[in-house]
Every structure is written in structure tokens, then in C-alpha cells.
Specification:
single chain; 392 residues; alpha/beta; Enolase-like, domain 1; TIM Barrel; 2 domains; seven-stranded parallel sheet; 13 strands; racemase and epimerase activity; Mandelate_racemase_N_dom; Muconate/chloromuconate family cycloisomerase; muconate cycloisomerase activity; manganese
């Protein structure tokens, strides 16, 4: 039985009835494969289809919540793969969470922390599903459990990452014409810096309507490369440089950031709150990329935002090319943040040829709309899911 808002005024949130109703009875993890609309290149990999893990959490009241764990073509961006995520959820996290009330998400997070070290993508997907089921039980949007939404839409950019300048020019023009995206991220690092700059210059020359331009080097440059090519990036009016150096080179990032007239964004360098604080204190960058896969849970994601801001960094809504489920989870937090000056990059759902939800996220007038309704606000399409599941 769902509780409406009026009932909650007179009913203690954590009464015994609600705890019994929201006891976790089953957790499933399934690997999903979706083809991409085009090849997507990073400095260390390339893929033409997306694989992620769908997590489903069923409560005693019969309500099911969903979550998504995304990776980039295997354990290349971080240590997790879809296979390891499925195994971690099935063998370690699920047994630890059985009978835990979804109405006690802090207890669920503590149980997961004891059951497995790191495994952030797996934990993030499970916690998302728990929160989704809890919010559905309470008949409230997930944003309400994080303080309530302050915005119903977030500016969203599009990433150009095929490496084919001609194709990218046409893609950018199409996104602008459709009023879907006017800010763009250009993936660098899979070619030489000289080739990347030629490609970047062509995009700037042939698509002057671009508003903001971010470059993501994906840890592929050296400190010498940064010093050598920063003037060219400044000439091309680049607005932000994401993680140009390897994630463990805090000292190098700090030196580059001190020299660069363009702000640097910290991504792979900082997963934990200690790492975020260290990056901010050392001056490694003035912007931090928030990602569920780094924080390992929605509660931790909200905490990461506070830590980053207190360390002197602005907030940016990063992604790992999640579909609508993973993007909706991020938006549930992004919508509640007092400040999100850098917008977000949750274009992932549009990179898939098809989706596994009935209600894909909406992009209009250069903004990504926050889903409405109870829970995450997105619902599985069982027929499409059946076609997308990896055979056991």
C-alpha cells in the first residue's frame, strides 16, 4: 500500500508498518546490451554498443525499484565491468540486503559497505533501485527524498566523439537545429594533439553557433603537452578542459591549473571525499565532475557535491553514458543542488538506438527535463528489455 503525502503528516515515517512493507525481498542484476547510433571514441577505447547492468529490487509490498550501472567498454574507465558488477550484486550485495527495509537507506548503504569494498557502480545501481522503490511506496518523486527539486530542467551538452571532423560538424549542426544542444564536449586524446587541434579548429570554424566548448582529454596528455597546447586551446575559445593528466598526477594537475587561463575540471582524479578535498586543496581544478559511478550511491553523490563546493570547486553533472534510468537517478540529485553552474552531460540516452524504458527522458530547448511522478519517473518496457538482455 502506498502512502500519500497527507497520510505522512499523521503517520511516523519509520513506523513498524512501513518498515515491514519496505523490507527487501529480492535483488536481481541483468546485463543489457544496446547498439549505439555511432561509434564513440575515448583515449583508451572505442565502442559501437553500450553494455550496462540493470538492477531490480523488489520489496515486501510488491513494489519494484530499478537502477543502472554503466561502464565504458569493460574495466577501462574504472576497475568494474558488467560481469563483475553482476557478480558483486548477486553474490555479495543482495544477500547482505535481504530483509533490510528500503525505508532505512542509510542502513542499506552501511550493509553494502561491509559486504564489498569500492564496487561503486554496483552499489550505486542497487541504492538507486532501493530509493526508487521507497519513493514509489511513499508516492513521491525521488527528488523529495533529497530535499525537493529546485529546478525541473538542467542545461545539457552533447559529446562529439567519432573522431571524424566532417561527421562531427554535421552532428553538431543537427543538434543545434533541433534546439537540443548548443554546448558541446569534444573528446580528445585518441589522436595526436596536433590532429586533435586541427579537428577542433574545423569544428570552431564551421559551427560558429556553438555556445560553450569543453574538451575532454581523458588523461591522455602529459604536463609538457598541456604547456605546449594550452595557447592553442585558448585561441580556440575553449571554456573548460577536463582531466588532461592521469588521475593520480595531482601535482601535475595543480601546476597546469595554476598556469592555465582556462579552468580545469577534475574527473578521474577524485572518487572519494578525501580525494575531492585533496584535489580542491591542491588547486588541481576549479570544477568537479559529479558521477554516481564515482560516489557509489545517491546519498554519497549529494555529499560529494558539498565536499567539492567546500573545496572551492564548481559543480558539473558528469555521466558514464547511462541510459534513461541512470540519467534519471543523477537528475534526482542534480535537481536538488542549490548550484549547478556547469550544467550536465546526460546525453547518453540519445546515443542508444533504442531504450528499455517506456518513457525516455526529454530534451527540449537545450535542457534535459527532470522526470516527474513517483520514484525515478521512468518505467521499464519489458518487451524491449527482453530483446536487449544478454543471453545467460
Amino acid at each position: 500500500m502506498a502512502h500519500n503525502a497527507a497520510e505522512l503528516i499523521e503517520t511516523p515515517l519509520l513506523d513498524g508498518d512501513l518498515l515491514r512493507q519496505t523490507a527487501i525481498r529480492e535483488i536481481r542484476a541483468q546485463i543489457v546490451t544496446l547498439p549505439s547510433v555511432r561509434a564513440h571514441r575515448l583515449s583508451n577505447t572505442e565502442f559501437s554498443h553500450r553494455e550496462f547492468v540493470l538492477v531490480r529490487v523488489r520489496l515486501a509490498n510488491g513494489i519494484e525499484g530499478i537502477g543502472e550501472a554503466a561502464v565504458l567498454g569493460g574495466p577501462r574507465w574504472a576497475e568494474e565491468s558488467v560481469e563483475s558488477i553482476q557478480a558483486a550484486v548477486t553474490r555479495y550485495l543482495a544477500p547482505a540486503l535481504l530483509d533490510c527495509p528500503a525505508a532505512r537507506p542509510a542502513e542499506a548503504a552501511l550493509r553494502m559497505a561491509k559486504a564489498a569494498f569500492r564496487n561503486n557502480a554496483a552499489k550505486g545501481a542497487v541504492e538507486t533501485a532501493i530509493y526508487d522503490a521507497l519513493a514509489q511506496t511513499l508516492d513521491v518523486p525521488l527528488t523529495l527524498l533529497f530535499g525537493g527539486a529546485l529546478r525541473d530542467r538542467v542545461p545539457v551538452l552533447w559529446a562529439l566523439a567519432s573522431g571524424d571532423a566532417e561527421q562531427e560538424v554535421e552532428e553538431a549542426r543537427a543538434k543545434l537545429a533541433a534546439r537540443e544542444h548548443r554546448d558541446f564536449k569534444i573528446k580528445l586524446g585518441f589522436a595526436s594533439p596536433e590532429d586533435d587541434l586541427r579537428r577542433l579548429r574545423r569544428l570552431r570554424d564551421e559551427v560558429p553557433e556553438m555556445r560553450r566548448l569543453i574538451v575532454d582529454v581523458n588523461q591522455a596528455w602529459s604536463e609538457a603537452d598541456c604547456r605546449r597546447f594550452l595557447p592553442a586551446l585558448q585561441e580556440l575559445r575553449v571554456d573548460l578542459i577536463e582531466q588532461p593528466l592521469p588521475g593520480d598526477d595531482f601535482e601535475g594537475m595543480a601546476r597546469v591549473a595554476a598556469q592555465s587561463p582556462i579552468p580545469l575540471m577534475v574527473d578521474e582524479a577524485a572518487f572519494t571525499h578525501r580525494e575531492i578535498t585533496r584535489a580542491g586543496t591542491m588547486g588541481c581544478g576549479s570544477v568537479y565532475s559529479l558521477k554516481l559511478v564515482k560516489s557509489g550511491g545517491l546519498r554519497a553523490l549529494t555529499q560529494a557535491a558539498r565536499v567539492a563546493e567546500s573545496s572551492g570547486m564548481e559543480l558539473y553533472g558528469g555521466c558514464l553514458l547511462e541510459g534513461s534510468i541512470g540519467a534519471a537517478a543523477h537528475l534526482a540529485v542534480f535537481a536538488t543542488l542549490p548550484r549547478l553552474p556547469q550544467g550536465c552531460e546526460h546525453f547518453g540516452p540519445r546515443l542508444h538506438v533504442s531504450e528499455i524504458v517506456k518513457d525516455p527522458l526529454v530534451i527540449e530547448d537545450f535542457h534535459l527535463c527532470v522526470p516527474q511522478g513517483p520514484g525515478l519517473g521512468v518505467h521499464l518496457d519489458e518487451d524491449r528489455l527482453r530483446d536487449a538482455l544478454r543471453p545467460s
